Structures are given as structure tokens and as C-alpha cells.
């Protein structure tokens, strides 16, 4: 059977979709790829020229490293491990400068990047509050990396899935116990007995409380082992749609590489 994708919700930062006619292993590989194998840019090193704020240099570096960077032209860059340079060059790093003096709140929008395509995904992320006569002057160096190496390169911040439920009702005696036990309120009674509204089926959490409450075993709740409901959230490095596409491309590239290796054995 052909794999199928049904998009339920899609916005710039989040998405929900159903992946069906596939295996748990493939569904999990998509989840892992979105979290760990899609490359992004993140601030990885600092040259601090002046810091009279209340934060230590290391604390300031941690805050800057966790600012998501939008990466429109990431394919134009290589990772430091793959680059032929020894100390960083325009092929593997982006310079981002910050010069601020108090009193003011410094935001991610105050960062100035040498590449217009590598910018903070949000301009309103607070970095530090500077008081009177406090200054911060620094150069941050952003490098390309993967989420599996460090969380600062993790483009997907909340990517998960669950099996779709299979709910069957047979010979219901209309006692209503399953309706009262369902924590999501997706079961109702009609003239024929207990029913689940198709539009509410996605809300089922597979707790099986309705099944346990039924004294005549009229209702059964199982997992569909070939269909999965995905919930995806991007940190802003990519749109949610591009994050999903990049995850699929990553898996495809790995599969192609393995096939080439096996063919050469």
C-alpha cells in the first residue's frame, strides 16, 4: 500500500498530520529526524570585547546560543568538521555582532548578522537588561550543526506522534458507563447505543477507561499499528512545513547512501 499523508493543521510554527500505511519504525524515524537530523545554525562561540552587565560571560553565551536562527540559505554553508579551514571561514560560520549600552532591555532583534539569510527567528527574545553605564560589546559566531550534537541546533522543539485509535462497539446495552468514563467526552449514546463521533476520534488518548467500564465487553479500543497522528512544532529555524520536508529528505539521503554501500559490497 502507498504511504499517505493527511494534513490536519498547518501554520508557520506548528502542524498536525496523519501518516498512514506505514510502520512504527518509519514513523519514529521521521520524529527523530525532525528533532536530531535537520541541520540549523546556532551561536557556538563568542568574542566578548566588553561586558559590564550582571551576567557572566558564560551565562551570556548560553542565552545567545539558545536563540533560534532562521536559516534560509543553510545549504550554502558547511559544518566545521567538513570545512577545510582550521579557524573558521565564511564557508562554515556567520558573524553576528551586538553592541548595546544601558539603560535598556537588549533583545534578539539587536543582533546584527553578516548574512541577511541567517537572522534571529524572533526579534523580541530578551537577552539581558542593562542598567545605567552597563555595556555589552561582542561578536558571536554561528555554526551549522545537528540537534543530535547539541540542543541549540534542534529545529523541532515538540515533535511527537501517537497511534490512531480503533474503537469498535458491538451489542451495546445503552448503559452509558463508557460515556461517563471517557475523559475526553468523545463517546455519546444514540438509539443504537454508544458511538464515537468521527470528528472527535483524534482526541482519543487510548486510555481504555471506556473499555474497562463496560461490563459486557461491548466496546473495544485498540491501536492502529499503521496510522499515526503527528504533532510538530518548529523553533522558527524553519517553517513547520519545511521542517517536515527536510526530515523526509534526510531519511531519503541516508537510505540512498546505505543502498550505495550495499551495492558496492
Automatic annotation (TrEMBL):
InterPro entries: 4Fe4S_Fe-S-bd, 4Fe4S_Fe_S_CS, DNA-dir_RNA_pol_insert, DNA-dir_RNA_pol_RpoA/D/Rpb3, RBP11-like, RNAP_Rpo3/Rpb3/RPAC1, RNApol_insert_sf, Rpo3/RPB3_RNA_Pol_subunit
Superkingdom per UniProt: Archaea
The name this protein goes by in its record: DNA-directed RNA polymerase subunit Rpo3
UniProt cross-references to Pfam families, sorted A to Z: Fer4, RNA_pol_A_bac, RNA_pol_L
Signal peptide, first to last residue: none
Database matches in Gene3D superfamilies: 3.30.70.3110, DNA-directed RNA polymerase, insert domain, RNA polymerase, RBP11-like subunit
Domain annotation 4Fe-4S ferredoxin-type: ranges: 163-192, 193-224
Main location: cytoplasm
Record field: catalytic activity: RNA(n) + a ribonucleoside 5'-triphosphate = RNA(n+1) + diphosphate
Subunit structure: Part of the RNA polymerase complex.
Note on cofactor: Binds 1 [3Fe-4S] cluster.
Organism: Methanohalobium evestigatum (strain ATCC BAA-1072 / DSM 3721 / NBRC 107634 / OCM 161 / Z-7303)
